[in-house]
Amino acid sequence: MRFVHLLKLCSFESATSLNDVGCGYGAVLAFLAKRFRGTAIDYLGLDISPAMITQAQKLWQKRIGTKFLIASTSPRTADYSIASGIFNVKLKQPIDLWELFVAKSLANMHSTSRRGFAVNFLTPTSAQSLPVPELYYAQPDVWREYCERTFNSKVEVIAGYGLREYTLIARSS
Question: What's the CATH fold of domain 2-171?
Answer without folding.
Answer: Rossmann fold (3.40.50)
